[in-house]
Amino acid sequence: MPHHQLIVVGGGLAGLRAAVEAKASGLDVAVLSQVHPGRSHSSAAQGGINAALANHPDAHDDTPEKHAFDTVKGSDYLADQDTAIQMTKDAPGVIFEMDHWGCPFSRFDDGRIAQRPFGGAGYPRTCYGADKTGHYLLHTLVERAYERQVKMYIEVFVTSLIVDEGRCRGVVAYDMINGGFHAFTADAVVMATGGAGRIYGNSTNAIISTGAGAAMAYHAGVPAEDMEFIQFHPTGLLTTHILMSEACRGEGGYLVNGEGERFMARYAPKAMELAPRDITARSITTEIIEGRGINGEDYVHLDLRHLGAEKILERLPGIRDIAIHFEGVDPIEEPIPIRPVQHYTMGGIDTDVDGRTRLPGFYAAGECACVSVHGANRLGGNSLLETIVFGRRAGMAVVADLEGGSAGGGDVSAAGSAAVSAMEARVAELASRGADGADPYAIRAEMIATTRDYFGVFREESVMRTGLETLRRLKERCGGIGLRNAAGVFNLDLMRTLELEGMVDLALCVAEGALARTESRGSHSRTDFPARDDERWLVHTLAYYTPEGPRLEHAPVTLGTFEPQERKY
Amino acid sequence: MRTVNFHIKRYDPARDAKGTSRVEAFEIPYETSLTVLEGLFHIQEHQDPSLSFRYCCRASICGSCAMYINGRYRLACQTNVLHLHTDEVHVDPLPHLPLVKDLVCDMDDFFAKYEYVQPWLQRSSQEPAKEILQSPADRHKLNMPIDCILCGACYSSCPSVWTEDNYLGPAALLKAYRFEVDSRDEARKERLPRWDNERGVYRCHTIANCIEACPKELSPTEGIQWLKMAAVRRRLFGRAK
Q1: Where in A66-122 does DSSP place strands (E)?
Q2: Dihedral sign, CA of A523, A528, A531, A537?
Q3: Is residue A282 pLDDT above 90, yes or no?
Q4: pLDDT reported for residue A10
Q5: Could you name the CATH architecture of A236-339?
Q6: What is the pLDDT of residue A408?
């Protein structure tokens, strides 16, 4: 039974940053990932990473405090202000560190890291590497993890936590290459498995972004925080929902409706296309609902043609490749058909500013966590920042806690064996129903259509009630799922069946949270409650797992620096 | 309804002898658009749950799904059946690599060789308080190699890899090149002996299959030739880079 002081689940930016940090302090660290870490969804991030470096000629007086204000205002004041301030304060240092580790940021003429304007930001402070910033950051951290000799278990699929005497002591995982379930025991576990985008049928996210880590924590009794806040990115490619970076608009791209009009003038006359994502996504959706989509259909155009071939090839080469390959459109010649699509999970595992959760020995960082710095709406360029800042902080917290003697101590092999046996029994039960059981792919298909159609950009009570009833029925059907293929290696049927119930559970958290919150805030926009209601709803939602469905509680938001005010852009 | 036929090379270590494989055919509905990856998911969900393949981003950036499709190296996610101009789709795993199952290859050697070239920025100077300055012209030198997604297509396509187990191959050498041309890198002699030898750059015979195979349209050959010249400059003239 492999044992490590720290096990990190997930090899994306947050997980690797935590691992590299803890390893540098001498801990025995292992990363478990269902894909090679270089293939993690972090690689799909495009536009950039925010930090108040003040490198841009228009940003000489930018500061972390101003970055924190933009973040809190963007969050519609639901972000915890102390954590937002911490993130923006840490930001310049972690960016310089990524540069020292070799990240190929684009450069200004004077050799400093280039920065571009992004939505909802008062200054151009988004550092970038062309439009492949996530790919470059991720490969830089993969390289650093190899250099530091971080142990990597590649293509192991984590299925549950090992909890012994009230403390997280490791995980159970399916070995995709050799088959079988194994216990990986540890003194501490950092969960860094990314967002839950794939609970929606129209997501920009990678296929593996199923929310598995958040679901495991939720099942182990750690509350899921603010799950109703789902970000819809304004510009997803029409047919495949692949992301067209906010950098397209940061570099000057236009949003144009069927009447050839730059309609953002109606919704955000000052910021125009660079309004925050929630506002821009609502504006596009409104144009479509009111019949001003292209040819009256449900999309609008992202027009880059006026930027010219040279700028597109230099700053947005990846966007152009994706548009050509996946939509058959060359942005140099034609406008790109886009519409708002699910993009980011603001909510997640409830953690403090150092990644600690209520379960001793269990930490979380990155999109699977809710620190919370994004509140009700994340600003573009803050997610990459969150992964590195809070991945690092979680790594530091584990080091401090283990040095402080809060390690689990005792022998955990019995608990590990029991957890493996429980998982094997679960698989045997699923397999015993086989093809006679409920079809997991039919349940998945109905779930992702329900979230998409009933919990989208605009929400309303009667619609959401219908959606919630469907999700509850799907949850019941999960109890009778059949596993058709129980044996063998690289068993996709096994993994995709095991992950399904957690996805439905998280969808229920989204639904219950959205129904309960009778106000509009950030990405959560209720047509029946169009105003923000600070008196009643300036609170976080905490969803606790029960077999009957999520039990909701509320917790105060940390304020104190920036007074909540109306958002205007 | 229109359908297309997928012919998939199958291998299951539990039933097939090592080195053998079968081809199985599946008929898939084609509506308005279908990528090869979507077709594979359709089969796995509705026809044969035991089908194995790698996937992640479905947006041609993660490098998981490189396969050999209708006689060419392609990313399954980036390949629309429409553009194949046929209703017969032949899907093989990356050729010349050992198999784990079906379309999943064993990439252990590939990543061991990647690690062997020490693919990380090496510096001895005291780090500045801010970023290390790098001119746009120096940054431009990185444009090609940093777009590698480590999908393995080049490695699978290289005859020198097929015939010499120890050859590092185009992807690892492209990574070595990426750090050699980075103005911030200060490895002087440390990395050189790892590629300046028979298992390194001199095993490349400029066949250039890698260029044709690369789904990101990169040129490992160009990087390898640059390394050869750099090695000569260092050996003959004692230049640092």
Answers
A1: 115-116
A2: negative
A3: yes
A4: 98
A5: Alpha-Beta Complex (3.90)
A6: 59
Mutate to test the interface with B, among A34, A310, A325, A496 (most CBs of B within 10 A): A325
- CATH code assigned at B94: 3.10.20.30
Q: What's the pLDDT tens digit per position in A532-559?
A: 999 999 999 999 999 999 999 999 999 9
d(CA A524, CA A377): 9
Return mean pLDDT, chain A. 97
Q: CA of B64, closest CA in chain A: separation in Å?
A: 7
B196 and B124 together in one domain: yes
Helix (H) or strand (E) run with residue B159 in it? helix B159-163
Question: How many Å lie between the alpha carbon of B131 and the closest alpha carbon of chain A?
Answer: 5
> CB distance B54–A108 less than 8 Å?
no
A24 touches chain B (CB under 8 A): no
> Is A249 noted as a catalytic residue in this protein?
yes
Q: Has residue A523 got a pLDDT over 90?
A: yes
Q: Would you state the torsion angle of the CA atoms of residues B77, A31, A145, A346, taken in this order, to the nearest 10 degrees?
A: 60
Across the A:B interface, residue pairs with CB atoms under 8 Å apart total 156
Q: Where are the beta strands (DSSP E) in A29-83?
A: 29-33, 49-50
Q: Which of A56, A241, A249, A320 is catalytic?
A: A249
Q: Give Dmax (Cα) for chain A.
A: 69
Q: Which CATH number among 1.10.10.10, 1.20.58.100, 1.25.40.340, 1.10.3720.10 corresponds to the domain A413-556?
A: 1.20.58.100
Number of compact structural domains in chain B: 2
Single pTM value for the model: 0.98
Is ipTM over 0.90? Answer: yes
* In contact, A520 and A529? CB cutoff 8 Å: yes
A144 close contact with B: CB closer than 8 A? yes
Q: Tell me the residue range of the domain where B151 lies.
A: 108-237
